[in-house]
Amino acid sequence: MNPKNNLIIALVIAGIIAMSYNIDANPAEFVKGIPNLTIVLKEMTEIEPNLFGTAFWSMLETIEMAFIGTVVGVTIALPLSMLAARNLNSKFVYVPLRGILAAARTFPSILWAILFVIMVGLGTFAGVLAIIMYTVGFIAKLQYESIEAVDSDPVEAVSSIGVSKWQLIRHVVIPESAPHLLSQILYMFDYNVRQTSILGLVGAGGIGFYIINYIKFFEYGKAAVFMLVVLIAVLIIDFVSVKIRDKYIVKAQKGMEVKI
Amino acid sequence: MSFNKLAEKLSPTHLFSNLSTISTKTLIQMNNVWASYDAKNYSLKEITLSIERGTNYSIVGQSGSGKSTLLKLINGMMIPSKGQIKVDYQTPNINNKEFKRAMSKIGYIPQSLGLVKNITVLENVLIGSLPRIGKLNSFLKKFPESEIQEAEKIIKLVGLGGKSERKAYMLSGGEKRRVAIARALMQKPILLLADEIVSELDQVTAREIMDLVADAQQRLNLTAVMVHHDMQLALEYANRVAVIKEGRKILEIGIEGDKIIDFQSGNISQQEIMELYNSNEP
User: Fold this and answer.
1) Do B136 and B218 form a contact (C-beta atoms < 8 A)?
2) Which residue in A180, B58, B64, B193 has the fewest CB atoms around it within 10 Å?
3) H or E stretch including A173?
Protein backbone atom coordinates (compact mmCIF):
# COMPACT_ATOMS: atom_id res chain seq x y z
CA MET A 1 0.00 0.00 0.00
CA ASN A 2 1.46 3.39 -0.92
CA PRO A 3 1.66 6.42 1.44
CA LYS A 4 -1.08 8.21 -0.49
CA ASN A 5 -3.57 5.38 0.23
CA ASN A 6 -2.54 5.30 3.91
CA LEU A 7 -3.20 9.02 4.17
CA ILE A 8 -6.67 8.61 2.59
CA ILE A 9 -7.55 5.78 5.01
CA ALA A 10 -6.31 7.84 8.00
CA LEU A 11 -8.38 10.83 6.85
CA VAL A 12 -11.53 8.71 6.46
CA ILE A 13 -11.10 7.19 9.96
CA ALA A 14 -10.46 10.66 11.46
CA GLY A 15 -13.57 11.93 9.66
CA ILE A 16 -15.76 9.12 11.03
CA ILE A 17 -14.53 9.77 14.61
CA ALA A 18 -15.14 13.53 14.32
CA MET A 19 -18.59 13.05 12.78
CA SER A 20 -19.59 10.43 15.41
CA TYR A 21 -18.65 12.91 18.14
CA ASN A 22 -20.70 15.57 16.38
CA ILE A 23 -23.83 13.41 16.13
CA ASP A 24 -23.43 11.88 19.60
CA ALA A 25 -22.83 8.36 18.33
CA ASN A 26 -21.23 6.65 21.29
CA PRO A 27 -20.33 2.92 20.92
CA ALA A 28 -20.39 2.58 24.72
CA GLU A 29 -24.11 3.37 24.68
CA PHE A 30 -24.60 0.54 22.19
CA VAL A 31 -22.89 -1.97 24.48
CA LYS A 32 -24.85 -0.64 27.47
CA GLY A 33 -28.13 -1.12 25.55
CA ILE A 34 -27.58 -4.79 24.71
CA PRO A 35 -29.46 -6.03 27.86
CA ASN A 36 -32.52 -3.96 26.76
CA LEU A 37 -32.45 -5.69 23.38
CA THR A 38 -32.41 -9.12 25.00
CA ILE A 39 -35.51 -8.14 27.03
CA VAL A 40 -37.34 -7.08 23.84
CA LEU A 41 -36.24 -10.19 21.97
CA LYS A 42 -37.38 -12.41 24.86
CA GLU A 43 -40.79 -10.74 24.84
CA MET A 44 -40.94 -11.12 21.08
CA THR A 45 -40.59 -14.88 21.39
CA GLU A 46 -43.88 -14.91 23.33
CA ILE A 47 -45.83 -14.63 20.09
CA GLU A 48 -49.62 -14.75 19.97
CA PRO A 49 -50.62 -17.23 17.22
CA ASN A 50 -54.28 -16.10 17.16
CA LEU A 51 -53.10 -12.86 15.52
CA PHE A 52 -51.72 -14.63 12.41
CA GLY A 53 -55.10 -14.31 10.62
CA THR A 54 -55.22 -10.52 11.07
CA ALA A 55 -51.54 -10.28 10.16
CA PHE A 56 -52.11 -12.28 6.96
CA TRP A 57 -55.01 -10.07 5.81
CA SER A 58 -53.19 -6.84 6.63
CA MET A 59 -50.13 -8.12 4.72
CA LEU A 60 -52.38 -8.90 1.77
CA GLU A 61 -53.72 -5.35 1.94
CA THR A 62 -50.13 -4.07 2.01
CA ILE A 63 -49.21 -6.13 -1.06
CA GLU A 64 -52.33 -4.89 -2.88
CA MET A 65 -51.36 -1.28 -2.11
CA ALA A 66 -47.80 -1.90 -3.35
CA PHE A 67 -49.09 -3.65 -6.49
CA ILE A 68 -51.55 -0.89 -7.44
CA GLY A 69 -48.94 1.78 -6.64
CA THR A 70 -46.28 0.05 -8.74
CA VAL A 71 -48.50 -0.65 -11.78
CA VAL A 72 -50.05 2.85 -11.88
CA GLY A 73 -46.70 4.50 -11.12
CA VAL A 74 -44.90 2.60 -13.91
CA THR A 75 -47.72 3.40 -16.36
CA ILE A 76 -47.33 7.11 -15.66
CA ALA A 77 -43.51 6.91 -15.58
CA LEU A 78 -43.05 5.27 -19.00
CA PRO A 79 -44.26 8.10 -21.28
CA LEU A 80 -42.51 10.60 -19.00
CA SER A 81 -39.22 8.71 -19.33
CA MET A 82 -39.48 8.93 -23.15
CA LEU A 83 -39.82 12.69 -22.84
CA ALA A 84 -36.98 12.94 -20.29
CA ALA A 85 -34.40 11.01 -22.37
CA ARG A 86 -31.67 13.31 -23.70
CA ASN A 87 -31.13 11.30 -26.87
CA LEU A 88 -34.80 11.64 -27.92
CA ASN A 89 -35.79 15.20 -27.01
CA SER A 90 -34.65 18.79 -26.95
CA LYS A 91 -33.37 20.24 -23.69
CA PHE A 92 -36.47 22.45 -23.47
CA VAL A 93 -38.49 19.28 -22.87
CA TYR A 94 -36.15 17.11 -20.81
CA VAL A 95 -34.62 19.72 -18.46
CA PRO A 96 -37.90 20.88 -16.77
CA LEU A 97 -39.29 17.34 -16.76
CA ARG A 98 -36.18 15.96 -15.07
CA GLY A 99 -36.57 18.69 -12.43
CA ILE A 100 -40.13 17.56 -11.68
CA LEU A 101 -39.10 13.89 -11.55
CA ALA A 102 -36.19 14.71 -9.22
CA ALA A 103 -38.65 16.51 -6.92
CA ALA A 104 -40.91 13.42 -6.85
CA ARG A 105 -37.90 11.31 -5.86
CA THR A 106 -36.52 13.71 -3.26
CA PHE A 107 -39.10 12.76 -0.61
CA PRO A 108 -39.27 9.13 0.48
CA SER A 109 -42.72 7.48 0.27
CA ILE A 110 -43.35 8.06 3.97
CA LEU A 111 -43.13 11.85 3.55
CA TRP A 112 -45.43 11.70 0.53
CA ALA A 113 -47.79 9.60 2.69
CA ILE A 114 -47.96 12.39 5.33
CA LEU A 115 -48.82 14.86 2.60
CA PHE A 116 -51.54 12.61 1.14
CA VAL A 117 -52.99 11.79 4.60
CA ILE A 118 -53.49 15.55 5.01
CA MET A 119 -55.00 15.69 1.53
CA VAL A 120 -57.31 12.64 1.39
CA GLY A 121 -57.46 11.56 5.04
CA LEU A 122 -56.19 8.51 6.93
CA GLY A 123 -56.22 5.13 5.22
CA THR A 124 -54.85 3.00 2.41
CA PHE A 125 -55.68 5.44 -0.42
CA ALA A 126 -53.16 7.98 0.92
CA GLY A 127 -50.60 5.17 1.04
CA VAL A 128 -51.27 4.13 -2.57
CA LEU A 129 -50.90 7.75 -3.75
CA ALA A 130 -47.57 8.01 -1.91
CA ILE A 131 -46.30 4.82 -3.54
CA ILE A 132 -47.41 6.05 -7.00
CA MET A 133 -45.61 9.35 -6.50
CA TYR A 134 -42.30 7.79 -5.51
CA THR A 135 -42.56 5.08 -8.20
CA VAL A 136 -43.08 7.70 -10.94
CA GLY A 137 -39.96 9.62 -9.88
CA PHE A 138 -37.83 6.53 -9.48
CA ILE A 139 -38.87 4.39 -12.49
CA ALA A 140 -38.85 7.38 -14.85
CA LYS A 141 -35.23 8.08 -13.87
CA LEU A 142 -34.11 4.45 -14.24
CA GLN A 143 -35.96 4.17 -17.53
CA TYR A 144 -34.66 7.37 -19.15
CA GLU A 145 -31.16 6.28 -18.16
CA SER A 146 -31.62 2.89 -19.84
CA ILE A 147 -33.11 4.60 -22.93
CA GLU A 148 -30.01 6.78 -23.12
CA ALA A 149 -27.84 3.66 -22.80
CA VAL A 150 -29.63 1.72 -25.59
CA ASP A 151 -27.20 0.18 -28.09
CA SER A 152 -26.55 2.81 -30.77
CA ASP A 153 -26.06 0.23 -33.57
CA PRO A 154 -29.74 -0.69 -34.17
CA VAL A 155 -30.72 2.95 -33.63
CA GLU A 156 -28.30 4.03 -36.35
CA ALA A 157 -29.23 1.16 -38.68
CA VAL A 158 -32.98 1.74 -38.39
CA SER A 159 -32.58 5.55 -38.62
CA SER A 160 -30.91 5.01 -41.98
CA ILE A 161 -34.16 3.47 -43.29
CA GLY A 162 -35.73 6.93 -42.97
CA VAL A 163 -38.21 6.11 -40.17
CA SER A 164 -39.81 8.76 -37.94
CA LYS A 165 -38.63 9.42 -34.38
CA TRP A 166 -41.71 7.73 -32.87
CA GLN A 167 -41.29 4.68 -35.09
CA LEU A 168 -37.70 4.46 -33.89
CA ILE A 169 -38.83 4.66 -30.25
CA ARG A 170 -41.61 2.10 -30.70
CA HIS A 171 -39.66 -0.45 -32.73
CA VAL A 172 -36.09 -0.09 -31.45
CA VAL A 173 -35.78 1.90 -28.21
CA ILE A 174 -38.67 0.27 -26.30
CA PRO A 175 -37.79 -3.36 -27.20
CA GLU A 176 -34.08 -2.73 -26.53
CA SER A 177 -34.73 -1.26 -23.08
CA ALA A 178 -37.51 -3.77 -22.19
CA PRO A 179 -35.36 -6.28 -20.25
CA HIS A 180 -34.17 -3.42 -18.03
CA LEU A 181 -37.77 -2.32 -17.53
CA LEU A 182 -38.92 -5.74 -16.34
CA SER A 183 -36.01 -5.90 -13.92
CA GLN A 184 -36.76 -2.36 -12.69
CA ILE A 185 -40.48 -3.13 -12.16
CA LEU A 186 -39.62 -6.22 -10.10
CA TYR A 187 -37.15 -4.23 -8.03
CA MET A 188 -39.68 -1.43 -7.56
CA PHE A 189 -42.44 -3.81 -6.46
CA ASP A 190 -40.07 -5.45 -4.00
CA TYR A 191 -39.07 -2.03 -2.65
CA ASN A 192 -42.69 -0.81 -2.54
CA VAL A 193 -43.84 -3.82 -0.47
CA ARG A 194 -41.19 -2.93 2.15
CA GLN A 195 -42.10 0.75 1.98
CA THR A 196 -45.86 0.10 2.25
CA SER A 197 -45.16 -2.02 5.32
CA ILE A 198 -44.07 1.11 7.20
CA LEU A 199 -46.59 3.60 5.77
CA GLY A 200 -48.97 2.64 8.61
CA LEU A 201 -46.63 4.60 10.88
CA VAL A 202 -48.20 7.81 9.57
CA GLY A 203 -51.72 6.41 9.23
CA ALA A 204 -51.54 5.55 5.54
CA GLY A 205 -52.77 1.95 5.89
CA GLY A 206 -51.05 -1.40 5.59
CA ILE A 207 -49.48 -3.76 8.11
CA GLY A 208 -47.26 -1.02 9.59
CA PHE A 209 -50.32 0.41 11.38
CA TYR A 210 -50.52 -2.71 13.60
CA ILE A 211 -46.75 -2.94 14.13
CA ILE A 212 -46.40 0.67 15.32
CA ASN A 213 -49.44 0.44 17.60
CA TYR A 214 -48.32 -2.78 19.34
CA ILE A 215 -44.79 -1.38 19.77
CA LYS A 216 -46.22 1.84 21.23
CA PHE A 217 -48.00 -0.22 23.91
CA PHE A 218 -44.92 -2.43 24.52
CA GLU A 219 -46.74 -5.53 23.19
CA TYR A 220 -43.68 -6.93 21.46
CA GLY A 221 -45.09 -10.46 21.23
CA LYS A 222 -48.02 -9.20 19.15
CA ALA A 223 -45.78 -6.93 17.03
CA ALA A 224 -43.49 -9.94 16.40
CA VAL A 225 -46.33 -11.84 14.69
CA PHE A 226 -46.81 -9.02 12.20
CA MET A 227 -43.06 -8.57 11.65
CA LEU A 228 -42.70 -12.31 11.04
CA VAL A 229 -45.46 -12.16 8.40
CA VAL A 230 -43.69 -9.21 6.69
CA LEU A 231 -40.44 -11.20 6.67
CA ILE A 232 -42.09 -14.29 5.15
CA ALA A 233 -43.96 -12.21 2.53
CA VAL A 234 -40.78 -10.35 1.51
CA LEU A 235 -38.86 -13.65 1.24
CA ILE A 236 -41.61 -15.16 -0.97
CA ILE A 237 -41.69 -12.04 -3.22
CA ASP A 238 -37.90 -12.13 -3.43
CA PHE A 239 -37.98 -15.82 -4.43
CA VAL A 240 -40.65 -15.20 -7.09
CA SER A 241 -38.77 -12.21 -8.56
CA VAL A 242 -35.56 -14.24 -8.77
CA LYS A 243 -37.48 -16.90 -10.73
CA ILE A 244 -38.98 -14.28 -13.09
CA ARG A 245 -35.59 -12.64 -13.51
CA ASP A 246 -33.97 -16.00 -14.37
CA LYS A 247 -36.67 -16.85 -16.88
CA TYR A 248 -36.99 -13.56 -18.73
CA ILE A 249 -33.93 -11.46 -18.05
CA VAL A 250 -30.83 -13.53 -17.29
CA LYS A 251 -31.61 -15.93 -20.15
CA ALA A 252 -32.02 -13.03 -22.56
CA GLN A 253 -28.73 -11.51 -21.46
CA LYS A 254 -26.93 -14.83 -21.81
CA GLY A 255 -28.37 -15.14 -25.30
CA MET A 256 -27.04 -11.73 -26.21
CA GLU A 257 -23.57 -12.79 -25.21
CA VAL A 258 -23.45 -15.58 -27.81
CA LYS A 259 -20.40 -14.93 -29.93
CA ILE A 260 -20.31 -15.42 -33.68
CA MET B 1 -29.71 -24.19 -52.05
CA SER B 2 -29.10 -20.96 -53.96
CA PHE B 3 -31.35 -17.94 -53.69
CA ASN B 4 -32.52 -18.41 -57.30
CA LYS B 5 -33.55 -22.02 -56.82
CA LEU B 6 -35.32 -21.31 -53.57
CA ALA B 7 -37.16 -18.37 -55.05
CA GLU B 8 -38.36 -20.40 -58.02
CA LYS B 9 -39.53 -23.18 -55.73
CA LEU B 10 -41.42 -20.90 -53.40
CA SER B 11 -42.85 -18.40 -55.78
CA PRO B 12 -43.93 -19.22 -59.37
CA THR B 13 -44.31 -15.53 -60.21
CA HIS B 14 -41.45 -13.11 -59.77
CA LEU B 15 -41.71 -11.99 -56.18
CA PHE B 16 -40.01 -8.67 -56.61
CA SER B 17 -40.91 -7.92 -60.22
CA ASN B 18 -42.22 -4.46 -59.44
CA LEU B 19 -39.43 -3.38 -57.16
CA SER B 20 -36.97 -1.71 -59.46
CA THR B 21 -36.26 -1.07 -63.06
CA ILE B 22 -32.98 -1.46 -64.93
CA SER B 23 -31.43 1.75 -66.07
CA THR B 24 -28.04 2.43 -67.54
CA LYS B 25 -27.93 5.80 -65.85
CA THR B 26 -25.56 6.54 -63.02
CA LEU B 27 -27.02 5.98 -59.57
CA ILE B 28 -24.13 7.28 -57.46
CA GLN B 29 -21.77 10.04 -58.49
CA MET B 30 -18.95 11.36 -56.30
CA ASN B 31 -16.79 14.27 -57.40
CA ASN B 32 -13.60 15.14 -55.52
CA VAL B 33 -15.10 14.18 -52.15
CA TRP B 34 -13.23 14.79 -48.90
CA ALA B 35 -14.60 13.66 -45.54
CA SER B 36 -13.46 14.16 -41.98
CA TYR B 37 -14.74 13.26 -38.49
CA ASP B 38 -12.71 15.86 -36.60
CA ALA B 39 -12.25 18.68 -39.15
CA LYS B 40 -8.46 18.05 -39.04
CA ASN B 41 -7.65 14.62 -40.43
CA TYR B 42 -9.40 13.53 -43.58
CA SER B 43 -10.61 9.92 -43.65
CA LEU B 44 -11.35 10.29 -47.36
CA LYS B 45 -9.46 12.40 -49.86
CA GLU B 46 -10.21 13.33 -53.49
CA ILE B 47 -12.66 10.49 -54.06
CA THR B 48 -14.20 10.53 -57.50
CA LEU B 49 -16.26 7.59 -58.62
CA SER B 50 -19.34 6.76 -60.55
CA ILE B 51 -21.55 3.73 -59.91
CA GLU B 52 -24.10 2.69 -62.51
CA ARG B 53 -27.45 1.13 -61.69
CA GLY B 54 -27.41 -2.65 -61.45
CA THR B 55 -23.70 -2.83 -60.63
CA ASN B 56 -22.29 -5.11 -57.95
CA TYR B 57 -19.66 -2.70 -56.68
CA SER B 58 -17.05 -3.53 -54.06
CA ILE B 59 -14.93 -1.12 -52.10
CA VAL B 60 -11.84 -2.82 -50.72
CA GLY B 61 -9.37 -1.53 -48.19
CA GLN B 62 -7.56 -2.31 -44.97
CA SER B 63 -9.20 -1.30 -41.69
CA GLY B 64 -9.06 2.43 -41.14
CA SER B 65 -8.73 3.14 -44.86
CA GLY B 66 -12.01 5.10 -44.92
CA LYS B 67 -14.20 2.58 -46.75
CA SER B 68 -17.00 2.55 -44.13
CA THR B 69 -17.03 6.35 -44.22
CA LEU B 70 -17.72 6.11 -47.93
CA LEU B 71 -20.93 4.13 -47.27
CA LYS B 72 -22.06 6.63 -44.62
CA LEU B 73 -21.61 9.42 -47.18
CA ILE B 74 -23.76 7.55 -49.70
CA ASN B 75 -26.66 7.02 -47.27
CA GLY B 76 -26.50 10.55 -45.90
CA MET B 77 -25.50 9.59 -42.34
CA MET B 78 -22.42 11.75 -42.90
CA ILE B 79 -21.91 14.96 -44.88
CA PRO B 80 -18.72 15.48 -46.92
CA SER B 81 -16.32 18.28 -45.93
CA LYS B 82 -15.65 19.07 -49.58
CA GLY B 83 -16.88 17.85 -52.95
CA GLN B 84 -20.21 16.74 -54.30
CA ILE B 85 -22.25 13.51 -54.01
CA LYS B 86 -25.43 12.62 -55.87
CA VAL B 87 -27.43 9.48 -55.17
CA ASP B 88 -30.35 9.04 -57.54
CA TYR B 89 -30.10 12.77 -58.40
CA GLN B 90 -30.29 13.82 -54.74
CA THR B 91 -27.69 15.08 -52.31
CA PRO B 92 -27.52 12.61 -49.39
CA ASN B 93 -28.30 14.18 -46.01
CA ILE B 94 -30.26 12.43 -43.24
CA ASN B 95 -31.53 15.81 -42.00
CA ASN B 96 -33.09 16.62 -45.35
CA LYS B 97 -36.77 15.57 -45.45
CA GLU B 98 -36.73 14.84 -49.17
CA PHE B 99 -33.67 12.62 -48.89
CA LYS B 100 -35.19 10.90 -45.83
CA ARG B 101 -37.90 9.62 -48.17
CA ALA B 102 -35.23 8.38 -50.57
CA MET B 103 -33.49 6.60 -47.68
CA SER B 104 -36.41 4.20 -47.43
CA LYS B 105 -35.14 2.75 -50.75
CA ILE B 106 -31.54 2.40 -49.55
CA GLY B 107 -30.92 -0.85 -47.69
CA TYR B 108 -28.00 -0.26 -45.36
CA ILE B 109 -26.39 -3.15 -43.48
CA PRO B 110 -23.78 -1.85 -41.03
CA GLN B 111 -20.90 -4.04 -39.84
CA SER B 112 -22.68 -4.44 -36.49
CA LEU B 113 -25.85 -5.41 -38.47
CA GLY B 114 -27.98 -3.23 -36.19
CA LEU B 115 -30.58 -5.87 -35.37
CA VAL B 116 -32.98 -5.29 -32.49
CA LYS B 117 -31.96 -8.19 -30.24
CA ASN B 118 -35.07 -8.61 -28.12
CA ILE B 119 -37.60 -8.94 -30.92
CA THR B 120 -38.28 -11.77 -33.34
CA VAL B 121 -36.83 -12.33 -36.82
CA LEU B 122 -40.22 -11.39 -38.35
CA GLU B 123 -40.43 -8.16 -36.34
CA ASN B 124 -36.88 -7.24 -37.34
CA VAL B 125 -37.66 -7.84 -41.01
CA LEU B 126 -40.93 -5.86 -40.79
CA ILE B 127 -38.91 -2.82 -39.67
CA GLY B 128 -37.88 -2.55 -43.33
CA SER B 129 -41.51 -1.75 -44.20
CA LEU B 130 -41.96 1.00 -41.57
CA PRO B 131 -41.68 3.95 -43.99
CA ARG B 132 -44.75 2.51 -45.78
CA ILE B 133 -46.83 2.08 -42.60
CA GLY B 134 -49.14 4.72 -41.12
CA LYS B 135 -48.27 6.39 -37.80
CA LEU B 136 -51.03 4.80 -35.70
CA ASN B 137 -50.57 1.30 -37.11
CA SER B 138 -46.82 1.44 -36.65
CA PHE B 139 -47.31 2.63 -33.05
CA LEU B 140 -49.67 -0.29 -32.40
CA LYS B 141 -47.24 -2.60 -34.22
CA LYS B 142 -50.13 -3.47 -36.54
CA PHE B 143 -48.72 -4.39 -39.94
CA PRO B 144 -50.97 -5.04 -42.96
CA GLU B 145 -51.39 -8.73 -43.79
CA SER B 146 -49.73 -8.16 -47.20
CA GLU B 147 -46.55 -6.83 -45.51
CA ILE B 148 -46.47 -9.78 -43.09
CA GLN B 149 -46.82 -12.23 -45.98
CA GLU B 150 -44.07 -10.45 -47.92
CA ALA B 151 -41.80 -10.52 -44.84
CA GLU B 152 -42.45 -14.25 -44.38
CA LYS B 153 -41.59 -14.87 -48.05
CA ILE B 154 -38.35 -12.92 -47.76
CA ILE B 155 -37.46 -14.78 -44.55
CA LYS B 156 -37.87 -18.06 -46.46
CA LEU B 157 -35.87 -16.73 -49.38
CA VAL B 158 -32.90 -15.83 -47.21
CA GLY B 159 -32.98 -19.36 -45.79
CA LEU B 160 -34.59 -18.71 -42.41
CA GLY B 161 -37.89 -20.50 -43.03
CA GLY B 162 -39.40 -21.74 -39.75
CA LYS B 163 -37.34 -19.30 -37.68
CA SER B 164 -39.47 -16.16 -38.04
CA GLU B 165 -40.67 -16.32 -34.41
CA ARG B 166 -37.17 -16.78 -33.02
CA LYS B 167 -35.68 -13.86 -31.05
CA ALA B 168 -32.75 -12.21 -32.82
CA TYR B 169 -30.33 -12.78 -29.92
CA MET B 170 -30.85 -16.55 -30.25
CA LEU B 171 -29.48 -16.66 -33.82
CA SER B 172 -25.99 -17.60 -35.04
CA GLY B 173 -23.71 -15.07 -36.74
CA GLY B 174 -24.66 -16.28 -40.23
CA GLU B 175 -28.37 -16.24 -39.42
CA LYS B 176 -28.14 -12.71 -38.04
CA ARG B 177 -26.64 -11.58 -41.34
CA ARG B 178 -29.52 -13.21 -43.21
CA VAL B 179 -31.99 -11.28 -41.05
CA ALA B 180 -30.15 -8.01 -41.79
CA ILE B 181 -30.26 -8.80 -45.52
CA ALA B 182 -33.98 -9.67 -45.27
CA ARG B 183 -34.70 -6.37 -43.47
CA ALA B 184 -32.90 -4.49 -46.25
CA LEU B 185 -34.81 -6.42 -48.96
CA MET B 186 -38.08 -5.66 -47.14
CA GLN B 187 -37.41 -1.99 -47.91
CA LYS B 188 -37.88 -2.84 -51.62
CA PRO B 189 -34.55 -1.10 -52.19
CA ILE B 190 -32.94 0.22 -55.34
CA LEU B 191 -29.58 0.34 -53.61
CA LEU B 192 -28.02 -2.05 -51.11
CA LEU B 193 -25.09 -0.90 -48.96
CA ALA B 194 -23.27 -3.55 -46.92
CA ASP B 195 -20.35 -2.87 -44.61
CA GLU B 196 -18.04 -5.89 -44.07
CA ILE B 197 -20.97 -8.22 -43.50
CA VAL B 198 -18.89 -11.38 -43.87
CA SER B 199 -15.69 -10.28 -42.14
CA GLU B 200 -16.20 -12.31 -38.95
CA LEU B 201 -17.59 -15.46 -40.56
CA ASP B 202 -15.92 -18.74 -41.52
CA GLN B 203 -15.17 -19.27 -45.23
CA VAL B 204 -18.20 -21.49 -45.93
CA THR B 205 -20.76 -19.23 -44.23
CA ALA B 206 -19.14 -16.12 -45.75
CA ARG B 207 -19.58 -17.55 -49.25
CA GLU B 208 -23.19 -18.54 -48.52
CA ILE B 209 -23.94 -14.97 -47.47
CA MET B 210 -22.11 -13.53 -50.49
CA ASP B 211 -24.05 -15.90 -52.81
CA LEU B 212 -27.29 -14.74 -51.20
CA VAL B 213 -26.49 -11.06 -51.74
CA ALA B 214 -25.24 -11.65 -55.28
CA ASP B 215 -28.36 -13.61 -56.24
CA ALA B 216 -30.67 -11.01 -54.69
CA GLN B 217 -28.73 -8.25 -56.44
CA GLN B 218 -29.06 -9.91 -59.85
CA ARG B 219 -32.65 -11.00 -59.40
CA LEU B 220 -33.88 -7.60 -58.22
CA ASN B 221 -31.58 -5.59 -60.52
CA LEU B 222 -30.26 -3.87 -57.42
CA THR B 223 -27.20 -1.76 -57.23
CA ALA B 224 -25.07 -3.24 -54.46
CA VAL B 225 -22.15 -1.41 -52.88
CA MET B 226 -20.26 -3.71 -50.56
CA VAL B 227 -17.25 -2.94 -48.41
CA HIS B 228 -14.64 -5.66 -47.77
CA HIS B 229 -11.09 -6.07 -46.64
CA ASP B 230 -10.80 -9.40 -48.46
CA MET B 231 -9.69 -8.61 -52.02
CA GLN B 232 -10.18 -12.22 -53.18
CA LEU B 233 -13.86 -12.13 -52.19
CA ALA B 234 -14.37 -8.81 -53.99
CA LEU B 235 -12.75 -10.07 -57.22
CA GLU B 236 -14.93 -13.17 -57.08
CA TYR B 237 -18.30 -11.47 -56.63
CA ALA B 238 -18.16 -7.85 -57.82
CA ASN B 239 -18.19 -6.53 -61.37
CA ARG B 240 -16.38 -3.39 -60.27
CA VAL B 241 -13.87 -2.91 -57.47
CA ALA B 242 -12.40 0.28 -56.05
CA VAL B 243 -9.36 -0.03 -53.81
CA ILE B 244 -9.05 2.55 -51.04
CA LYS B 245 -5.79 3.16 -49.26
CA GLU B 246 -5.31 5.76 -46.54
CA GLY B 247 -8.42 7.58 -47.69
CA ARG B 248 -7.53 7.72 -51.37
CA LYS B 249 -8.80 5.63 -54.28
CA ILE B 250 -5.66 4.01 -55.68
CA LEU B 251 -7.26 1.70 -58.21
CA GLU B 252 -10.57 1.03 -59.92
CA ILE B 253 -11.06 -2.14 -61.89
CA GLY B 254 -13.83 -3.79 -63.83
CA ILE B 255 -14.31 -7.57 -63.95
CA GLU B 256 -15.82 -9.25 -66.98
CA GLY B 257 -15.58 -13.03 -66.75
CA ASP B 258 -11.89 -13.84 -66.38
CA LYS B 259 -10.77 -10.42 -67.58
CA ILE B 260 -9.77 -7.69 -65.15
CA ILE B 261 -9.54 -4.19 -66.58
CA ASP B 262 -7.77 -1.33 -64.90
CA PHE B 263 -9.67 1.79 -65.96
CA GLN B 264 -6.46 3.84 -66.06
CA SER B 265 -3.90 1.51 -67.62
CA GLY B 266 -5.85 -1.25 -69.36
CA ASN B 267 -5.41 -4.93 -68.48
CA ILE B 268 -4.07 -5.86 -65.08
CA SER B 269 -3.43 -9.27 -63.53
CA GLN B 270 -4.83 -10.51 -60.26
CA GLN B 271 -1.28 -10.85 -58.95
CA GLU B 272 -0.52 -7.19 -59.74
CA ILE B 273 -3.70 -6.14 -57.92
CA MET B 274 -2.78 -8.16 -54.83
CA GLU B 275 0.75 -6.71 -54.85
CA LEU B 276 -0.62 -3.19 -55.08
CA TYR B 277 -3.20 -3.88 -52.36
CA ASN B 278 -0.64 -5.38 -49.98
CA SER B 279 2.16 -2.85 -50.62
CA ASN B 280 2.98 -0.39 -47.86
CA GLU B 281 3.35 2.54 -50.20
CA PRO B 282 0.39 4.91 -50.26
Assistant:
1) no
2) B64
3) none
Residue B146: count of CB within 10 angstroms of its CB:
9
Residues 6+ apart with CB under 8 A from B24: B52, B53
> Among B129, B128, B125, B127, which residue's Cα sits nearest to residue B165?
B125
**pLDDT for A136-152, tens place per residue?**
999 999 999 988 888 88
Residues of A with CB under 8 A from a CB of B: 151, 153-164, 166-167, 170-172, 175-176, 178-179, 252, 255-256, 258, 260
In 3D space, the residue among B238, B258, B205 whose CA is nearest the CA of residue B60 turns out to be B238
Give the C-alpha separation, B230 to B101, whole Å: 33
A168 in any annotated domain? yes
For residue A55, the enclosing domain spans 42-256
- What's the total number of domains in chain A? 1
Are B110 and A157 in contact (CB < 8 Å)? Answer: yes
CATH number for the domain that contains residue A66 = 1.10.3720.10
pLDDT attached to residue B14: 39
Which segments of chain A does DSSP mark as H helices, in order?
3-22, 27-45, 52-84, 91-106, 109-120, 124-148, 152-159, 165-168, 174-199, 208-216, 220-244, 251-256
Using DSSP's 3-state secondary structure scheme, residue A177 falls into helix
Strand order in the sheet with B26-36: B42-52, B26-36, B82-87
Residue A205 lies in a domain: yes
pLDDT for B280 equals 58
CA angle B73, B78, B83 (to 5 degrees): 60
In a domain, A19, yes or no: no
Q: Count A/B contacts: CB-CB distance under 8 Å.
A: 99
Q: Which candidate from A156, A159, A176 shows the least CB-CB separation from B118? A: A176
Read off the pLDDT band of A52 (50, 70, 90).
Answer: confident
- A70 domain-assigned: yes
pLDDT of A1 above 70? no
pTM metric for this prediction: 0.74
**Contact at 8 Å (CB) between B118 and A173?**
no
ipTM value for the complex: 0.80
